[in-house]
Amino acid sequence: MNSVSLASVVGVTLALGGTTFLAFAKRRKQADPIDARRHLMLTWGGCIALLCVILFWEQRPLSSIGLVAGNFRAWGIGACVGLAVVMSNGLFLRFGKKTVMDGSVDTLLKLAAKPLWFRIAVVFTAGITEEIVFRGYPIERLAEMTGSLWLAALVPLLVFTLAHLSGWSARHLITVFFAGAILTGLYLWQKDLAACMIAHAIIDVPIIFLPLITKKLTAAVVDAKPA
């Protein structure tokens, strides 16, 4: 095993194992309050560590994980995908109240209680860091290691989904899986990580406006419970 492949093994382990560990370290119990600064420090710390592996150990450019400049068509497609997911979620909440997943609202209420700066930071942090550590890097490196693009796409998707258990209910993972599958499909289609970042951030934008919509979400859960 040469130094580059060893670096890639370490990088994939950090991306899929280390960042998942940090996700659970941020919130050991779902009942715990959200520590805003700790959340951001751990999230960005794991991502920066991975970027250091790419740039200084592997000595490869960011284009090796799908980060390229000037691909405006792909970025526009990413924006459209993000908007489509947001609109479909809105229709779901409007017409599918009885199927709102238990456990989601509790976490959303906690996020809504946090200051605006944190909710904005969460949107952009998730859009950037999660696409690097759960999409671009592991897909590209696992594809090189295994020779299977589909395996390289599936493994990070499953880890991405399970990592959300750190702050959400098990039933909420269904939503996470489908959103992650859409973002994974977008990356395989466009091979542009910035497009995925844009789509991811747009999908998470409603978090910014949670104080305006949590009453509706709470009412939806109440309506979903049997009398």
What this model shows, in words?
- The protein contains nine helices and no strands.
- It is mainly α.
- The protein has a domain at 72-224.
- α1 runs parallel beside α6 (149-163).
- It is globular and about 50 Å long.
- The N and C termini lie far apart (62 Å).
- 32% of the residues are buried.
- The model has no long low-confidence stretch (mean pLDDT 85).
List the helices and strands and how they pair.
Layout: H1 3-26, H2 36-57, H3 72-95, H4 104-112, H5 116-146, H6 149-163, H7 173-190, H8 193-204, H9 210-224
Helix pairs in contact: 1-2, 1-5, 1-6, 2-5, 3-7, 3-8, 4-9, 5-6, 5-8, 6-7, 7-8
Query: Portion of residues in helices?
Result: over 70%
How big is the Rg?
A: 18 Å
User: What is the arithmetic mean of pLDDT?
Assistant: 85
Helix/strand order, N-terminal first: HHHHHHHHH
Q: In angstroms, what separates the terminal alpha carbons? A: 62 Å
What key phrases describe this protein's structure?
227 residues, 0% strand, mainly alpha, 75% helix, globular, 9 helices
Question: Quick summary of this structure?
Answer:
This protein is mostly helical and 227 residues long. The protein has helices spanning 3-26, 36-57, 72-95, 104-112, 116-146, 149-163, 173-190, 193-204, 210-224.
